[in-house]
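Notes on consecutive records. When two proteins share a document, each keeps its own sequence and its own token line. Never mix them. Below: protein one.
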Amino acid sequence: MLLTLSRTLLTQSTVFLSSLGPFRAQEVSSSILVLARSAMSSHAPAKSAAKSEKTPAESGAASSKSAAAAASSAGKVRKVEVEKSPNDNRDYRGLVLGNGLKVLLVSDTKTDKSAAALDVHVGHMRDPTELPGLAHFCEHMLFLGTDKYPDENEYGKFLSQHGGGSNAYTSGEHTNYYFDVSPQHLEAAFDRFAQFFLRPLFTESATDREVKAVNSEHEKNVASDNWRLNQLQHHLCDPEHDYKKFGTGNKETLYEIPKGKGIKVREELLKFHSQWYSSNIMALTILGKEPLDDLEKMVTERFTAVENKNVDVPMWEKNPIRNPEETGKMLYVVPVKNLRNLNITFPIHDLQPHYRSSPGHYLGHLIGHEGKGSLLSELKRRGWASSLVGGQKHGARGFGFFIVNLDLSEEGIKHVDEIVSLVFQYMKMLRMSGPQDWVFEECKKICNMQFQFKDKERPQSYVSSCSHDLQYYPMEEALTGSYLLTEWRPELVEEVMDKLVPDNVRIAVIAQEFEDRAKETEPWYGTKYLEEDIPKEKISAWNEVEEAKDILHLPEKNEFIPDDFSLVDKDPEGSVPPHPVIIK
């Protein structure tokens, strides 16, 4: 199974593995580890998602939990109408089962594949300290036989025989399982899938063998700079924080070390599954040709039996990059490939509760702008950088990061301090300009347009991302939550800007040129690096940069973003001029 490096929105493939989500082009979601069991399917892109303090806009896990409690107390299924795009011809229905499990039904009479996915709101950040990789190992084991279908290959064999495939991923706070199959075989495949969460076997023989599969996946990733840089970020955070954990696991962490300590891994697997696999932190999406009522019956007949253990969704109040312990650092990293990157990271609070206003998207839109007056246009003019990614990056429920990542040229790697100065000059310009409602309105229109006319995703990817999103948005907003901006809250933009300062920064410079200087080694991937304190004089200089209004300024207003997509009446014959006319 995939151990994904990320779920969502901006990507810089040469830096931390973050995948580009379907909308907010400047919002960077978390680097999350994901391991794939099968090459038959690819993991869906994802969004930034998490929770922190309660706010009027907060709905995700908290509101879903209260909705689940209401359904549970009533002892019956609660049905919810789901808002969809006006151009989406599929039918939807939201459900909250009596055991608190959230469900999205999708009826698509024209689909060429049926699919289903279930997301459990727990991941490797809840691994026992002495067993790194246990959550990911648990994900593997669910594929290897259930009480009703004890043959280890039954699930995969059935899917492959009927035009389908499956996959799963484990991230810091999610475990997501998904499959697709020929439409006429959905119910039979779904029954096999449901047994994962009812009566998995966890046989002793399969446990011993599957450790080797986990280990081979880790070994496959050892030479990947994305994985190496991601784990280095975890390695250098607060040593007491769950974010520091090695999420993939390998033979050493799941067999050799536990054996030496007398730890029985299978017993710990059973314990982990028993503790965390609870219906009230699960979310399910099913897509098929069947009418909604038939899909609902298919779900309720199987998933109402999943036990509700009333588990609280894990949350982390503190950021793993502490200020001042882990900020004010300059990191020099040696990559495997010939990369030249500059990664600038600021620890911030969790912005997901503010998804309706998305201050991180607002700032990412401006910092990632590429036109006249932008940061990137100036860096390109000087020949120092070729691309820039800026925006919020999901950490986990309770904390996040804001990043500015750049691909540097051979000349640019010689001017890192000046590039960082330019970044802070741009930040100062944004701070002096203040939040602009017209910028938010442009973002709002673009997001609305993208939601209305978004491409139809592959069924397997679609159900995977929908089941993930059910954990964060109210059922009614399961489809719109990651797209639509509805609340302009300039004070939230200012709160984030207050964190984007030199006193709260951590910088990584990635290039093979540092081979001779890098004397330290990350233990799981062997990445060579050197970490130094940024001199106080340099921090002071960055704090005191002057505005550069002549080269760095806000983009011009875009008057050509459409917001009215209604069809107009055909012009009467003869009213259309024979040649185009300039209207503006």
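Protein two starts on the next line and is unrelated to protein one.
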Amino acid sequence: MAATGAGRSVAWRIRHRRTAAGSAAEPYWVHPSISTRPYALEPEEGVPHVKVEFDEDVWTPPMDPAAFAVFIDRLAGHVEHLRNLHAQLVTAVAAHQSGEQ
């Protein structure tokens, strides 16, 4: 984890762009950061909060602990759906390869 700061704002970001050896790693899709911006115009950014970057420059709004818990639960539901869809895809590919349609 790398700590970054701008003035009194501090964020901890989990980086996934480079491996330990410095070579390019898989691109990140879910990139969380915890920050506090005491001089922000938005009150929710003045207290510790989480934002999640899905792709470069695509962020969620600031989330307090309760909102972040809801986000995690929703994300877990999507992961379960993706796992089910993956199983269906594996079955469909196997059927296609065996000549079944």
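For the record: The helical segments are 65-97.
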